[in-house]
From TrEMBL:
It is found in: Cytoplasm. It catalyses: [protein]-L-isoaspartate + S-adenosyl-L-methionine = [protein]-L-isoaspartate alpha-methyl ester + S-adenosyl-L-homocysteine. One of its GO terms (molecular function) is protein-L-isoaspartate (D-aspartate) O-methyltransferase activity. It holds the Pfam family PCMT. The active site is at S72. This is Protein-L-isoaspartate O-methyltransferase. The keyword rRNA processing does not apply. Catalyzes the methyl esterification of L-isoaspartyl residues in peptides and proteins that result from spontaneous decomposition of normal L-aspartyl and L-asparaginyl residues. It plays a role in the repair and/or degradation of damaged proteins. The lineage of its organism: Bacteria, Pseudomonadati, Pseudomonadota, Alphaproteobacteria, Rhodobacterales. Belongs to the methyltransferase superfamily. L-isoaspartyl/D-aspartyl protein methyltransferase family. InterPro entries: PCMT, SAM-dependent_MTases_sf. It comes from the Bacteria. PANTHER family: PROTEIN-L-ISOASPARTATE O-METHYLTRANSFERASE, PROTEIN-L-ISOASPARTATE(D-ASPARTATE) O-METHYLTRANSFERASE. It comes from Paracoccus suum. The gene is pcm.
Amino acid sequence: MTDEAQPAPHLQDDPQEARMRFLLTLRSRGVTDARVLAAMERIDRGRFVRGLFEDRAYDDTPLPIPCGQTISQPSVVGLMSQALAVGPRDTVLEIGTGSGYQAAILALLCRRVYTVDRHRRLVIEAEAQFAALGLTNITARVADGSRGLPEQAPFDRILVTAAAEDPPGPLLSQLKIGGIMVLPVGQSDAVQTLLRVTRHSDGYEYDELRQVRFVPLVEGLGQT
Ligand code: SAH
């Protein structure tokens, strides 16, 4: 059966079945890493999508969250986590906490996650979810992520979930030698390119992975 022939998960009665289909969709869209799939099976996206759109939590689609932001499409979360090649001993910086969903997945894959957002409300709500899930290895901060998090640098991995025109210099310099950063780059309102940057001792290597669409990386702190 093709994806198109299947009923949308929110039209089904059984939440177990909806979550099973969610995992099958992830696989069919290229998320094949066993650790990433296991983490996505464990973290219930429904927790991070509240209100009006809750019944669409297992659809492979981005959804609105407070402060005019979005929770990313699950298959993109999976593909980005996979491209980051996170190891169990890694320290990861995420820029753009949003709902906290991506950070929760990373928390199961590595030793420690630092996640920052420019909106205080989003950080507070995400922290409540981390606590409810017993995820004690995530530190969330209200900060302008385009400057990175100098006090905790350098990082093994950096994941940016908002689009900049170019990789921000502070993030490049806060990556360890041998470290990997995955980020969308391009004009904020157009299609962007997902880039993987690997830092070598003699410079940076850039790989273009696929087209994506993210909300823009905005400098400075938000009003709420
Ligand atoms: N990773 C999130 C989705 C993030 S949406 C999730 O799993 O739900 C992008 C987020 O980036 C938004 O919450 C937005 O507030 C944040 N953002 C945009 N510019 C930023 C900046 N300069 N510093 C920190 N966060 C920023």
